[in-house]
Amino acid sequence: MKMLLMDLCGVGGSLALADSGREPAVFAQSTLAPRSAAATLLPAVRTLLEEAKLSVGELDAITVVHGPGSFTGVRIGVSAAKGLSEGAEVPLIAISRLAVLASLCPGPAGRVHAVLDAGRGEFYLGSYVHADNAWSCEREVLATRTELTAALADAPGMVCVCEAKVGDALVEFVPLAVAEPTAADAFALAATAFAAGKFADAAALDANYLRRADAEMLVKQKAAMAARQAERR
């Protein structure tokens, strides 16, 4: 099973080619410079495939890590993956960046909380349970610092981070710090999805932003404004 993997959720981006018939399965990788994805992604994909003597049509699947992360990077990655999938009629697989992060945490079976910085004092939280060599998602949410602390306290488990800023914010939970996930790191989850036939609808796939609904944001803004007005009285 030959697969192209794309991850543009971080500041830069990465690509990988994998073949389940090889050892190791991931046999080619490429990185994209920060803030260059719009101009360099497709040329980088072309170069990676040419060096491997493969065409898009010879792939068995295309996998995209569809967020959460950089709004611009995620959007570019998802759009490119959808275009390549539809154009070559190759199945598309979408993997959460939080799920990839959780899968990088070694240890016995149990609950893993993957946490990423969402900016504006908020965090992306993905809670998963690892059992029988399989991962199941309990939830993926956008949380404030207070909400995150409560969630981690209510459901004990390993806390996994890849950003120093997040690790510092959660020091009381003794988080495990790992390297930032790359496209290659998504292969194990993508291979499992492929074997189970869990493919994404290219036409309907959207970025996994996990942003709060506009209505919820408006309610919070109004509440904050009312509180400030009350303080002035």
Account of the 3D structure:
- The protein has 233 residues and is α/β, with parallel strands linked by helices.
- It folds into two domains: 111 residues, ATPase, nucleotide binding domain (Nucleotidyltransferase, domain 5); 73 residues, 2-Layer Sandwich (Nucleotidyltransferase, domain 5).
- The protein is 36% helix and 28% strand.
- The protein has seven helices and ten strands.
- The radius of gyration is 19 Å and the shape is globular.
- About 4% of the residues have low confidence.
The gist of it:
With 233 residues, the protein is an alpha/beta fold. It is 36% helix and 28% strand.
Uncertain runs = 213-222
Strand order of the largest sheet: 3-2-1-4-5
What is the total tally of β strands?
10
Global outline: globular
Provide the CATH architecture of the largest domain. 2-Layer Sandwich
Alpha plus pi helix count: 7
Query: Main sheet, how many strands, which sense, barrel?
Result: 5 strands, mixed
Please indicate the count of domains: 2
Whole-number mean pLDDT: 90
Question: Pairing-aware structural class of the strands and helices?
Answer: alpha/beta
Instruction: Look at the structure and name the CATH superfamily of the largest domain.
Output: ATPase, nucleotide binding domain
Q: Please indicate the percent range of residues in DSSP E strands (runs of 2 or more).
A: 25-35%
Q: Which H/E pattern describes the elements?
A: EEEHEHEHEEEHEHEHH
> The CATH topology of the largest domain, please?
Nucleotidyltransferase, domain 5
Report the end-to-end length measured between terminal Cα atoms: 67 Å
Task: Report helical residue fraction.
Answer: 25-40%
